[in-house]
């Protein structure tokens, strides 16, 4: 049995799709592509597909990961091409490698997020981020199925930088004239998970920063933090071994 590790995207309108629906779409694409999947044993066998750290509903991603097990040797390049043809626009397979062992989940302990805040100037955003980083603790409310709980966001945030660039929206004539602060932040994957909206709520708590329109968040990378706070590609070991 061969195990393959895939990196894929979740773009455009598909950011509003739940992980369950993404998983179903992916499994249908595997069938349409004729991938010789391995199946579990038991009364109700299911394809051996293992998801790693799926992005929450409502955010886009350039770095989602999944492992698939097959019963015949598959060429990673051919698999990438076949899946790209079978998957809908917005889900693009950008990398496929053969697993050479180890636990992929253990190679991921943080994510880098790009958060665009239309209507918020870079200077205003930078001031709010500065106040947030200076704090030892910033608690926000998190609504759960068991009621409202408090979540300390600050310990999970490794870094936060503001990029003074224009919005990528470009869908109308006013897009380039609107201020748009872009926050690049690296967040540890802790329990409970700290999501982009939690970071934005923390900025509201410490600096009363409230964007006039909903922010757009995109996960740019996942990986393990090195000694300098940078993310190491989780598929690097499979390529180098």
Could you explain how this protein is built, in words?
The protein has helices at about 20-30, 75-85, 120-135, 195-205, 235-240; strands at about 1-10, 50, 60-70, 95-100, 110-120, 140-145, 145-150, 155-165, 180-190, 215-225, 230. It is an alpha+beta fold and about 240 residues long. The strands form 2 sheets. Strands 1, 2, 3, 4, 5, 8, 9, 10 and 11 form a 9-stranded mixed sheet that branches. Strands 6-7 form a two-stranded antiparallel ribbon. Mean pLDDT is about 90; it is low at about 165-175.
Question: Strands, helices and their partners?
Answer:
Elements: E1 2-10, H1 19-32, E2 49-52, E3 60-70, H2 76-86, E4 93-98, E5 110-118, H3 122-134, E6 139-144, E7 147-152, E8 157-163, E9 180-188, H4 196-207, E10 216-225, E11 231-232, H5 236-240
Parallel strand pairs: 3-10
Antiparallel strand pairs: 1-3, 1-4, 2-3, 5-9, 5-10, 6-7, 8-9, 10-11
Helix pairs in contact: 3-4
What's the Cα radius of gyration? 20 Å
Q: Care to count the β-strands?
A: 11
Fraction in beta strands: 25-35%
Q: Give the overall shape.
A: elongated
Number of helices: 5
Largest sheet: 9 strands, mixed
Residue stretches low in confidence (pLDDT < 50, at least 5 long) are: 166-174
Alpha-beta classification: alpha+beta
What share of the residues lie within helices? 10-25%
The separation of the N and C termini measures: 19 Å
């Amino acid at each position: 049995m061969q195990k393959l590790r895939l990196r894929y995207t979740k773009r455009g309108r598909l950011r509003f799709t739940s992980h369950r629906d993404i998983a179903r779409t992916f499994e249908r694409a595997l069938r349409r592509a004729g991938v010789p999947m391995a199946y579990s044993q038991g009364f109700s066998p299911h394809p051996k597909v293992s998801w790693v750290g799926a992005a929450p509903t409502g955010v886009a991603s350039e770095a989602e990961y999944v492992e698939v097990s097959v019963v015949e040797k598959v060429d990673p390049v051919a698999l990438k091409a076949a899946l790209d043809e079978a998957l809908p626009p917005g889900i693009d397979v950008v990398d496929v490698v053969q697993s050479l062992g180890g636990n992929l989940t253990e190679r991921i302990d943080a994510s880098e997020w790009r958060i665009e805040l239309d209507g918020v100037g870079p200077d205003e955003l930078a001031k709010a981020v500065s106040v947030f980083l200076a704090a030892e603790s910033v608690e926000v409310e998190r609504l759960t199925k068991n009621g409202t709980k408090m979540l300390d966001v600050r310990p999970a945030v490794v870094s936060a930088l503001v990029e003074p660039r224009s919005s990528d929206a470009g869908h109308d004539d006013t897009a380039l004239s609107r201020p748009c602060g872009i926050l690049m932040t690296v967040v540890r994957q802790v329990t409970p998970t700290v999501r982009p909206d939690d970071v934005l709520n923390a900025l509201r708590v410490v600096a009363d920063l409230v964007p006039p329109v909903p922010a757009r968040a995109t996960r740019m990378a996942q990986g393990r933090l090195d000694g300098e706070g940078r993310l190491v590609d989780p598929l690097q070991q499979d390529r180098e071994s």
